[in-house]
Write a structure and sequence with these properties.
8-stranded mixed beta sheet; 5-stranded parallel beta sheet; alpha/beta; 17 helices; FAD/NAD(P)-binding domain; 20 strands
Amino acid sequence: MVLRRDQRVIVVGAGVGGLVTAVQLAARGLQVRVLERAETPGGKMREVAVGPHRLDAGPTVFTMRWIFEEIFEAAGAQLEAHLSLEPLSIIARHAWSEQERLDLHADYERSLEAIGDFAGAEAARGYRAFCKQARALYTTLDPTFIRASRPSLLGLLGRCGLKGLITLSGVQPYASLWDSLGAYFKDARLRQLFGRYSTYCGSSPFMAPAILMLIAHVEQEGVWSVVGGMHRVALVLAQLAEGLGATIEYGREVTQILTGPNGVRGVQLAEGDRIEAEAIVVNADPAALTSGRFGAEAQRALPPLDPERRSLSALTWCLSAETQGFPLARHNVFFGRDYASEFEDIFGRGRLPRDGTVYVCAQDRGTDGNGTPDGPERLFLLLNAPPRGDRHDFDAVEIEQCEQRVFSRLEHCGLRVRRDPERMVLTTPVEFERRFPATGGALYGQATHGWRASFSRPASRTRIPGLYLAGGGTHPGAGIPMAAISGRLAAEALLADQRST
């Protein structure tokens, strides 16, 4: 395959990974055409209308700002000129009951003090040691694994060097995140709090590897609020790509990837149109390829993906409502008492959790965690759920019982929400499956369960020449910064293949 600047690249999907790929390639002068089946960019980074209000209904946490600064700089732009970001002083507020509350702060010393007040001096010492290990892991793995084009254990060990190997030796390779946290925290509530980071990857802390503790360091480095909402990130990336010469077409669903003896030839759309291209980047869940959603020719691009290894799905509620009692911050987490049962219900029994953790994003709260809106406020609630949207249609009774448990959990912690069904939008795994086909509603690709899982995610290149992957289902993983990195890796792989030929 020889790619010249006058040849054509199609990006299938305008999620964050696809948009970053488009930006990178358009900045290098390639002809880029993005085809998106929805009417707006963003993929899972979407907005929902509730009456006159618009709410973020996907990712709500903006971290690793430096990744986006690098992306914009590589395209000859500045992040600050396109996006307004406000740092949060409270990373998240956590509650187990009306009397049990704990804030994690952007200020490390304040978090240390808060944990000491909450669980004692030993817990504070454990937190200090935990943060040191998390920082060392991130520093080691960012250049050697996260930004590496093709993940492998041998490659990781080869790139780490002696210092990196010493850092990795401090983490038991076969231990779960939950078990490893026990070395730092005897208080089960703190193990819940830091074990929850595995759910950022759609995984259970009881099966995810200890290496995921590095997420704690990422948040400690800064969490920002995006002025205008998270969906602005997608809009700005789309504008940047178009300003560089890429075209983005909405309402254009790709149903087949066309191949020939030498690799890809183009795509076919739902309305029957065929568009030729010399390279294609698929910004969709890899399961869409392996399940045949892009045609039989594209199924051979990857080894089959096991549906039993899917990540978490969710039930989400977007609502406008008045609240009383609990002093909400921007990000809030309400824990149950039996953490293990939540993941046994989801991954073991395939049912909605009986005692699930509830995340609440209060989108009208300030960055300092203070202040109460005058009147109704915009709330986004998320409960982890099994990824069975293609196999199980959650009935009205099941959903109603689950909803009652969710709002009872909030009330147990002191938060009363005066909800109105007319001002609330519910999304289930069935709807997520419709939006993101072949996933069952899984929102993070394959679950990161077991130490090998991080090395088994599909990489940028596929078995078909000229066909590349980007998105949260590919390496390096789920989350907005990781999806952005995947977009860069896809562009780099494509350009490297161009140079090599």
